[in-house]
Every structure is written in C-alpha cells, then in structure tokens.
Amino acid sequence: MPAIGFQPHDHSACVDGALSKAQAHCAALGLRMTPVRRRTLEILLAEHRALGAYDILGVLSEEGLGAQPPVAYRALDFLVKAGFAHKVEALNAYIACAHLGADHTPAFLICRACKSVAEADTAPAKGRLDDAARAAGFVIERTVVEAEGLCPDCQTDTKAEGTKAKGTTP
C-alpha cells in the first residue's frame, strides 16, 4: 500500500470512501456509529494531519455536539479500537486511518515543518526487528513506527528558500 497524505489525490472521494467503509464496517459488526463518532471521523478525514483531542473537541463544541473532554476522548477511543483512526504517539494526536478495512501495520511519516502526516503500510515485525526480537526470545504484539522529516512541499519550500538566500533564482 502506498503512503497516503503527501501526494495529490481526490480528497472528497478519499473522505466519502472512508466514511462509507466505516459505516459498512459498523453495520457488519453491529457497532454504533453515533453522530459524535461520525463527526469526529469526518473532522479527522478533513485534513491529512494529526489533530489533538482538544482540536476535535473545539469543533464538536461549536457544533453543539458536546463541550466536555470525555466526548472527544470516547469518540476517538471508539475510532481507534474500530480501526478507523490511529494515535500518533509523537504528537499525542490522532489521524484517520488511510487504509480503512485493511489489516496493516501503519508507519507515520510526520513533516516537522507543516505537521502533515502520511500513513504508509509497513511490516516491521517481519524484518530485522522480528529477527532481533526472536533472538531475544521476545514476541512482538504491536509496533508503532513514526518517522519525522520533511514532506515534498516543505522540501521544495526549503530548497527555494536556500536558493534565494544564495542570490540565485530557483
């Protein structure tokens, strides 16, 4: 699965497709997609960057869907457990799952400049990490892979700024 978040794509189709998959998944498993849960997922899907619980709570509160922190945290907890969202530990924030419905091990590519996040599928437990764990007698149950760097747009901005500083044009 390719990384989703940095390359151009039809964002409205991305959002609509994810919402449809989430709704179908809930129906198939008998899970309740409440208005607050659905709206929280919509908020996360609106951008390809991680949002904190209080960012989400601000939107929910403005829309009359709840003003107390447990409202956001319960919705986020549901979305994470259902596989519709992930917690990005480095940012203490949440992002909608880009590969909804697929069994995968996500890796998060976090832009240190603009804070956008792309989700890529990895299998760290099937490579060198698994070899090291096996040698130590350890069984990997869960991995969290987060890499920080610069997204393509911020790399371009940095290169352009560097070129301007040297007195040349890009």
Give, in spatial order, the strands making up the sheet with the most strands: 4-3-5
Average per-residue pLDDT, rounded, comes to 84
Number of helices: 6
CATH architecture: Orthogonal Bundle
Q: In sequence order, what are the helices and strands, one letter per element?
A: HHHHEEEEHEH
Description:
The chain contains six helices and five strands. The chain is of the alpha+beta class and 170 residues long. It has a single domain (11-165), classed as Winged helix-like DNA-binding domain superfamily/Winged helix DNA-binding domain (Arc Repressor Mutant, subunit A, Orthogonal Bundle). The chain has a three-stranded mixed sheet with strand order 4-3-5, with no helix packed on it. A hairpin with a 4-residue loop joins β1 and β2 (93-96). α3 (53-62) packs across α4 (69-82). The protein is globular. The two termini are 33 Å apart. The relative contact order is 0.14.
